[in-house]
Amino acid sequence: MNRTEPLVLGIESSCDETGVGIVRGNTLLANAVSSSMEEHVRFGGVIPEIASRAHLDAFVPTLRQALEEAGVTLDEVDAIAVTSGPGLAGALMVGVCAAKALALATGKPLYAINHLVAHVGVGVLDGGELPENLGALLVSGGHTEILRVRTLTSDVELLGSTIDDAAGEAYDKVARILGLGYPGGPAIDKLAREGNPKAIRFPRGLTQPKYMGSAEVPGPHRYDWSFSGLKTAVARCVEQYEAAGQEPPVADIAASFQEAVVDVITAKAVLACTEHGITNLLLGGGVAANSRLRELTAERCAAAGISLRVPPIRLCTDNGAMVAALGAQVVMAGGEPSGVAFTPDPSQPVTSIHLPAA
Ligand code: KG4
Ligand code: ZN
């Protein structure tokens, strides 16, 4: 196998995006994505069974599109990489089975890749090798995590995460309360521009001293987030206006909600970085599209002396190129293939960057 600049095909199916990406070393050749988001709209959130069926329909066309875009054949590929977790069990299963079938049919080595770490690995496609003292802030409909990345292919640590809803999920739920439709993130982001972010002081979850503790004696949730109380506070606020026979000020509520989310995400992420000597931060996940999150992260990172990297948004949302990128890094680092006996792991921890052969 070519381990200096391997041609790697990456497959992603952990949520509602079917992604097939192709890279050569650190160079992006193709990034084909098919999303089933439209099919979830009327339910106001991703329905796992619908997502799984959509992956099944989308896989072969998306694979063909990626190969065409890259101008390569399956035969030329050095290795196949696939997301094995974390994610929705049924959705992961479709991508993993497709990847195993391809690996068996072509005789190519297969690598089972961690989705979260792949969100970090994608950084190499935009600006090359990742810097030292690296942290990653991942914010999407499925995750809200702050990671410390010592070595991308072998040493990643979870510093903090949400203990309930992911940030994007909170956006989607609040958008539903405000009657804005799904997905809620872009709608709230837009409406918030017309509102006053200081109109209502919504709660910042897990910021009380009993959760934070101090730098010397950290509390149990110093770097963790919680968004379920915030969502409830928005619902109560809307109810109060309605009970009084008044129209809720939706733009002010959207702006104030967004400010609460973005404030607590950035404050805790920057705190985790400064207390762990992290001087470079990569922002990833679908919510990285949020204008206020980008703005406040940049502002607070600059103030803390942290240099910030935000890949282009099509690489931040779920895609196959990120899986291919991390797969290629593992191949280049001499990592062994995972074989075809592994099973997807819906709660694969970040410490498990690629699965060993079963
Ligand atoms: O990464 P992604 O495409 O899929 C996963 O959830 O893994 O992220 C989708 C999430 C949705 O919850 C959507 O509401 C949110 O990202 N989102 C945004 C924005 N654009 C997308 N949230 C806030 N502001 C945005 N501009
Ligand atoms: Zn993701």
UniProtKB/TrEMBL annotation:
Record-level Gene Ontology MF annotations: tRNA N(6)-L-threonylcarbamoyladenine synthase activity
Main location, first listed in the record: cytoplasm
Enzyme superclass (EC): transferase
Protein name: tRNA N6-adenosine threonylcarbamoyltransferase
Recorded family membership: Belongs to the KAE1 / TsaD family.
Assigned EC number: 2.3.1.234
Residues binding Fe cation, per UniProt: 115, 119, 318
Obligatory cofactor(s): Fe(2+)
Keyword terms, alphabetized: Acyltransferase, Cytoplasm, Iron, Metal-binding, Transferase, tRNA processing
Free-text function comment from the UniProt entry: Required for the formation of a threonylcarbamoyl group on adenosine at position 37 (t(6)A37) in tRNAs that read codons beginning with adenine. Is involved in the transfer of the threonylcarbamoyl moiety of threonylcarbamoyl-AMP (TC-AMP) to the N6 group of A37, together with TsaE and TsaB. TsaD likely plays a direct catalytic role in this reaction.
